[in-house]
Amino acid sequence: MTLECVDIASETHDVKSFYFRIVSDEQGPPLLWPHRPGQFVTLRLWYKGTLIPRSYTVSSPPTRPSLLSLTIKRDPAGLVSRFMHDRLSIGDRLSCTSPGGNFDLYSIKPRRKIVMLTGGAGITPAMSMLRYLYDMRATENEVIFIHSARTPDDIIFRDETLLMSKQSHTKVHYVCAQHAEPGMENGFLSKEILQRIVPDIHDSTILTCGPTPYMDAVKSMLNEIGVDMNNYHEESFGDPSKRFNPGGATPKTLDLGCSESTTKSDSPRFHEDNATSEIPDLAADTEDCTVRFSISNQTLTYSPQETLLQVATRAGIAVATNCQMGLCGTCKAKCTAGNVVMDTTEGLTDEDMSNGYVLTCVGRANGLIDLEL
Fold this sequence. Notes:
Blueprint: E1 2-12, E2 15-22, E3 40-47, E4 50-57, E5 68-73, H1 79-86, E6 93-96, H2 105-108, E7 113-119, H3 123-135, E8 142-149, H4 158-167, E9 170-176, E10 185-186, H5 191-197, E11 205-211, H6 212-225, E12 232-237, E13 290-293, E14 298-301, H7 308-314, E15 332-342, H8 350-354, E16 357-359, E17 363-371
Parallel strand pairs: 7-8, 7-11, 8-9, 9-10, 11-12, 13-17
Antiparallel strand pairs: 1-2, 1-6, 2-5, 3-4, 3-6, 13-14, 15-16, 15-17
């Protein structure tokens, strides 16, 4: 679908919210967003004919369907986040996929008590959920929202979440590593802070989103407390510096427009800096080194350094992605023939693996393979 940016709002010194409407060629009322609270969309940008997809969680709720908002932190290592902050203007149009992901209130079906633990820009899916519960005047759920930030000035949506705490069944707590203000927790989220704020956490559904080190620390705390991890759900953010960026691509050279898929002869090669340092011993670069994409009806050759996600983006195939580290499972695709070597399988369930699914962001083909993409 095609989006048009209609507003841009600064949330903190390095975080902005971008508001979009769906562009339609037909006359009539505006198209409405069909997402669930907590889902993401994948933006599609281009560099010299190479598709560069990036997934961002929707921060607006489905109860406000006329506009979609994406709240994005500008990361010095993030190619697309810098483009959004430095170049995108009101009136610009870009394409994106339909909403996806299962980190949402409908899929999770939480218990009556919900504990949301977020760090930094990981607040975005929680904000969509909080806004949804607030708009619905939900009384059947009690929400404990604990957000960690570097300083009070880095707290995203501070005023709005405080207002929610006064007008709904949501209790808001902030943890600041530096310069905590009265009423805030000083330092970092700890097991002691968590047990003091949520003494009955064992009876809660726990939703977590933030940088990988933050979520690792949260899981360690919960395991020490003895929480049943079946009640734990997370959305992971990857390291922007490890995401695929074609060699030579900068925020100034990205293109908003869609592009036809390119052939191997005129496609730019991937920069060596983005190749994995330890590549499995795969088949040589011969005619057998091909990936057949059955849905899009394309066949491409590959090099051992390329992940399946990189091959797909080179073909102009939009694959929904998020962490790009093999943790979240967003980019999984079904392999119907051939062998795929993966750096990790953490983002796959046992059922996924038995059904032939692979993680395209950390998977590399070994010989001829067929993918349902």
